[in-house]
Amino acid sequence: MAKARTIFFCQNCGAQSAKWIGRCPSCGEWNTYVEEVVQKETAPAAGSWKPASTVPGGNMQKAAKSRPLADIQHEEEPRILTPDGELNRVLGGGLVPGSLVLIGGEPGIGKSTLMLQIALALKKLKVLYVSGEESEAQIKMRAERLADGQHPGCYILTETSTQNIFRQIDQVQPNVVVIDSIQTMHSTLVESGAGSVSQVRECTAELLKYAKETSTPVLLIGHITKDGSIAGPKILEHMVDTVLQFEGDRHLSYRILRTIKNRFGSTSELGIYEMQGTGLRQVSNPSEILLSQRAESLSGMAIGATLEGNRPLLVEVQALVTPATYGTPQRSSTGFDSKRLQMLLAVLEKRAGLRLGQHDVFLNIAGGLRLDDPALDAAVCAAVVSSLNDLPIPGDVCLAAEVGLSGEMRAVPRLDQRLAEAEKLGFKEMYVSQFNGRNLGEQVRTSMRVQAVGRLDEVLNSLFG
Ligand code: TYD
Ligand code: MG
């Protein structure tokens, strides 16, 4: 019997050391080293996804040979288009065969629901849904809640050992595999507990090898830590092809699926869902929902034309400005960077001559979205002034411009997309920077009145007289 060997792993970056170290030399984090038992002997090579008995010759591996790039043939395998348009969009146009996709998100946000829904919707394919977190009955109950809970080719396996999972995979021969949470999986090749750095790394390596060798896409669900990063080693994110983040306020029904890394597409994509009693519904026209509760002629509201990823969105910025009851006025913002709000208030004070020093300012982006597009600046300023003066902004006006420190309106990228979206939603007038207006030229045809303005105070004068 071989002696159990232990190694210290950095829980942050996965670096290893024979001894405990206080500060990780590779990532610089303090106190992240944890001792884990590793066992290398007798078993097949680490990273192997096949059960020991099926690996011919045990540890023997065929060495790869280098080849000139020109000689390498590749056949483009068609992507698997899922019935979920939002997921296809964030994946850059469908699931790539043999890809490893990691979906991270806070507990209860709906990761398992989304994955089960997709497993059930892939009607033409055989899907294996492996859960290490829930019982078969729980999964069945969830499937019954979903609007479309029937799919004879969807197999459920409640198992946490990767070797057993691969045995089942051998039998079922699925076209897509879902692993409900990589942190609950464990491999017998490594001795430490499930969720530890070496287990997560080993299980991911086995699944990666399986995915690449059989061209089967594997969707991994990953937990998230308190600070919002995916739990486990950074290495996990390096190993997979695509990292998606599922986020949103748990008390609100909107959920956003964001691309963080994608080897097969752009990372600026975004999918929007709404959590309903019957599962997640795709929201293909988010602006309509974000604006639907708008009552005409209320003060403190302005519509900003923003871009989330490649998708134009019109959002409602709400501000409430009231005289401060206590000495220090409060500034609070939801869904918008509060430092940026402070800066814009200072600009309003200095460049537009508003007296906000004695007022509390509350800002909210409707719908529970968190946005950081600077093009919202003008709408934030307009909402604040509208509330301060108690003068509403006409319902068919929107704004898209960054506001600079000297009160100038700065250009924003891809104005044509923002204009097109606003026009589609029935807006008549958009305030933009004069620098955007200059380049707009003839190529953009729009029936909107485009007000190209140089300074923020001109916008405020024009809106509030
Ligand atoms: P779940 O998918 O288990 O989240 P995760 O796997 O990310 O931890 O649960 C999502 C939440 O959504 C849960 O609180 C119940 C709720 N839910 C609905 O509102 N409607 C539904 O149809 C389903 C299945 C869940
Ligand atoms: Mg879950």
TrEMBL record:
Biological processes per GO annotation: proteolysis; recombinational repair
- Spell out the residue ranges making up region: Disordered: 45-73
Which InterPro entries does this UniProt record tie to the protein? Answer: AAA+_ATPase (IPR003593), DNA_repair_RadA (IPR004504), Lon_proteolytic (IPR008269), P-loop_NTPase (IPR027417), RecA_ATP-bd (IPR020588), Ribosomal_Su5_D2-typ_SF (IPR020568), Ribsml_uS5_D2-typ_fold_subgr (IPR014721), Rubredoxin_2 (IPR041166)
Residue numbers covered by motif RadA KNRFG motif: 261-265
Segments forming domain RecA family profile? 76-224
User: Do you know which Gene3D superfamilies this protein is assigned to?
Assistant: 3.30.230.10, P-loop containing nucleotide triphosphate hydrolases
Region Lon-protease-like, as annotated, extends over 360-465
Q: Which CDD domains match?
A: RadA_SMS_N
Q: Where does ATP bind?
A: 105-112
SUPFAM superfamilies found in the cross-reference section: P-loop containing nucleoside triphosphate hydrolases, Ribosomal protein S5 domain 2-like
What keywords tag this UniProt record?
Answer: ATP-binding, DNA damage, DNA repair, DNA-binding, Hydrolase, Metal-binding, Nucleotide-binding, Stress response, Zinc, Zinc-finger
Does this entry carry the keyword Acetylation? no
What is one GO cellular-component annotation here? cytosol
- A GO molecular-function term, please? ATP-dependent DNA damage sensor activity
Q: Which PANTHER family match?
A: DNA REPAIR PROTEIN RADA (PTHR32472), DNA REPAIR PROTEIN RADA-LIKE PROTEIN (PTHR32472:SF10)
Write out the function statement from the record: DNA-dependent ATPase involved in processing of recombination intermediates, plays a role in repairing DNA breaks. Stimulates the branch migration of RecA-mediated strand transfer reactions, allowing the 3' invading strand to extend heteroduplex DNA faster. Binds ssDNA in the presence of ADP but not other nucleotides, has ATPase activity that is stimulated by ssDNA and various branched DNA structures, but inhibited by SSB. Does not have RecA's homology-searching function.
The text the record gives for the protein's domains is: The middle region has homology to RecA with ATPase motifs including the RadA KNRFG motif, while the C-terminus is homologous to Lon protease.
What family, per the record?
Answer: Belongs to the RecA family. RadA subfamily.
The molecule here is called: DNA repair protein RadA
